[in-house]
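Quick one, tokens below:
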């Protein structure tokens, strides 16, 4: 549940941030006539995202046996790739996203281009929507569907509330701390999805199983318990992982975690130097 909440919150906040900045910029520029166009782009993106999610779940739902295991592994590894790109992109570009969006909105408004405003919000929201559909598919497969669904709804609701707050604050809220904190959790979620993808491909016979059970913690924290289920859905906890699962989890966590932390520090230093020079 918490991993689904985290993913939809993160994706929802990014989409809400973009929409809030665009709408606030249009209002300040005196182009309120284009605000409806911006919201039309949002609405179209939501429809496309829901349709893509429905197709994904319907297609995967008809698979069985090895085909299902292979497909789920592919979906999880794809989600890991997109999540990894996302946290690095936000670490690198998060500080400049507001000014860049305001510039694009101002150019579109000055040109009187409703199509450009529509495309700006549509592309931003549909990208987050498609990523969310992929993440939710991977999350639902590795946790309880009902709990994951509730978490996803809660995350979107929180993201919507933050979007309203961002708009009312003139789209000037500092979200650096938010993205840094959720970035840590996203790396943990991605590590868990990596291990689960390895598990699926081992069951499908694509990856070898050298040592089937490295340890067994089912005696004090089984996966079907409240705590074990929470740890599994959020961090990819497995009570009895194979050697390759454990190694892949730790390798991703250490390698990507250190690289992301280094990128984040570099981005903050660059931003501090920029402010000092101006």
């Amino acid at each position: 549940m918490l991993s689904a909440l985290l993913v939809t919150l993160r994706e929802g906040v990014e989409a809400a941030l973009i929409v809030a900045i665009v709408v606030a910029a249009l209002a300040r520029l005196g182009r309120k006539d284009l605000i409806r166009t911006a919201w039309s782009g949002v609405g179209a993106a939501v429809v496309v995202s829901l349709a893509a999610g429905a197709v994904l779940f319907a297609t995967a739902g008809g698979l069985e046996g090895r085909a299902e295991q292979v497909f789920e592994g592919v979906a999880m590894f794809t989600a890991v790739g997109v999540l990894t790109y996302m946290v690095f992109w936000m670490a690198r570009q998060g500080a400049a996203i507001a000014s860049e969006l305001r510039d694009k909105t101002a150019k579109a408004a000055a040109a009187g281009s409703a199509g450009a405003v529509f495309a700006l919000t549509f592309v931003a929201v549909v990208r987050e929507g498609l990523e969310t559909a992929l993440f939710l598919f991977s999350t639902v497969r590795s946790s309880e569907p009902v709990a994951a669904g509730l978490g996803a709804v809660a995350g979107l609701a929180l993201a919507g509330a933050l979007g309203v707050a961002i708009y009312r604050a003139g789209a000037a809220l500092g979200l650096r701390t938010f993205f840094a904190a959720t970035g840590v959790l996203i790396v943990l979620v991605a590590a868990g999805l990596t291990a689960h993808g390895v598990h699926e491909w081992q069951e499908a016979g694509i990856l070898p199983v050298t040592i089937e059970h490295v340890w067994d913690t089912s005696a004090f924290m089984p996966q079907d318990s409240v705590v074990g289920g929470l740890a599994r859905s959020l961090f990819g906890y497995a009570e009895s992982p194979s050697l390759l699962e454990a190694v892949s989890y730790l390798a991703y966590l250490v390698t990507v975690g250190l690289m992301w932390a280094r990128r984040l520090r570099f981005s903050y230093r660059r931003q501090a130097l920029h402010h000092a020079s101006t």
